[in-house]
Amino acid sequence: MQFVAIDVETANPDMASICQIGIAFFKNGQLEREWVSLVNPKDYFDPINVSIHGIEESSVSSAPTFESIYHEIESLLSGKICVSHTHFDRISLGKAVRKLSLTPLEVTWLDSARVARRAWGECAWKGYGLANVCKIIGFEFKHHDALEDAKASGAIINAAIEKAGLSLDGWLARVGQPIAGFSSSGKITVEGNPEGELYGQSVVFTGALSIPRRDAAAMAASIGCSIASSVSKKIDYLVVGDQDASRLAGKDKSSKHIKAEELIASGARIRILKESDFKELVDSVAKNA
User: Fold this and answer.
1) Contact partners, residue 174, CB within 8 Å, separation at least 6
2) Bridge partners of 110?
3) DSSP character for 191?
4) Using DSSP, how many helices (H) and how many strands (E) does the chain show?
5) Residue 284's closest CA among 114, 35, 61?
6) DSSP letters of 266-287?
7) Is the pLDDT reported for residue 186 higher than 70?
């Protein structure tokens, strides 16, 4: 039984702005090999992202670009089962590849969050973030370091295989099946699809979107998200218009955007997404459902 686990960190809200990649190689339940590299994204570093992972522009000034190391990444991953926790790393890699017109990766993706939701009842509908699942299985790691997060994702897969008695191929099939025992409560503005990949998480929209808010809300609900009207430490995502996401130093940002950044700086686990990344997220989840 062999698989690789991967995680990336990004420099700013653009999911293609990869600034670190970590890959962990597992065989027969054991960590066999590690690979990690800083990446120069040739892009700006948002202070919010820096506050999360600690990687600054100066940290990558002499690091290779994504394009220059892609051949090595491709050789490490090609033809393998590739684990990531939720969709973000999968989408970030895909966006970076398309942005640079590189050859798409030929891998079989397995989402360790989807595995966790089916392996542990307490995180079937909430609490399936990487840190919480690792707490459940007793795996300690340094969050928001690409290699550490990759190893944590792999540890979840190994723990799920042992707990459920399913093989790796068995889990590849299981994640495509419904989660049993649905029950839910809570006040939300729009109900999310309970079988959606992101069920139990919430999103707020702000800024100038290219589509009507009601359409954006329907897209979010289709992948499981509930839609909230205001920013608080309890939300998971803030989706902003692409132009708004690129503005620096707080100038012309909406009050929701500014509040989300303040909460992130205080430790809240809110992810700010550009509208285009949000749309790609919805498409990616739909294709992998």
Assistant:
1) 115, 118, 164, 166
2) 83
3) P
4) 11, 9
5) 114
6) TT---EEEEHHHHHHHHHHHHH
7) no
Half-sphere exposure of 80 (CA within 13 A, CB side): 20
What pLDDT, on a 0 to 100 scale, did the predictor assign at position 195? 75
Q: Is this structure's pTM higher than 0.85? A: no
In angstroms, the CA 137 to CA 73 distance is 29
Cα dihedral angle (223, 229, 231, 232), rounded to 10 degrees?
A: -90
**Cα–Cα dist 105/194, whole Å:** 30
Choice among 146-150, 182-186, 212-216 with the minimum mean pLDDT? 182-186
Q: Is 68 helix (H, G, I), strand (E, B) or coil?
A: helix
Place of tokens 């997060």: 149
Question: pLDDT tens-digit profile of 128-140?
Answer: 999 999 999 999 9
User: From the CB of residue 262, how many other CB atoms can be counted at a distance below 10 Å?
Assistant: 12
Q: Which domains does the chain have, with CATH numbers?
A: 2-174 (3.30.420.10), 202-287 (3.40.50.10190)
Cβ partners under 8 Å of residue 253, min gap 6: 244, 247, 261
- What Å distances lie between residue 209 and 27, 105, 188, 228, 259, CA to CA? 45, 30, 21, 16, 19
With 60 as the cut, is the pLDDT of residue 90 above it? yes
Our CA dihedral for 29, 179, 129, 136, rounded to 10 degrees, sits at -60
Distance (Å, whole) CA 217 – CA 229:
11
Greater model confidence, 24 or 273: 24
**Average per-residue pLDDT for the chain:** 88
Helices of type H across the chain: 47-53, 66-77, 88-99, 112-119, 130-137, 146-164, 168-174, 213-222, 242-245, 255-265, 275-287
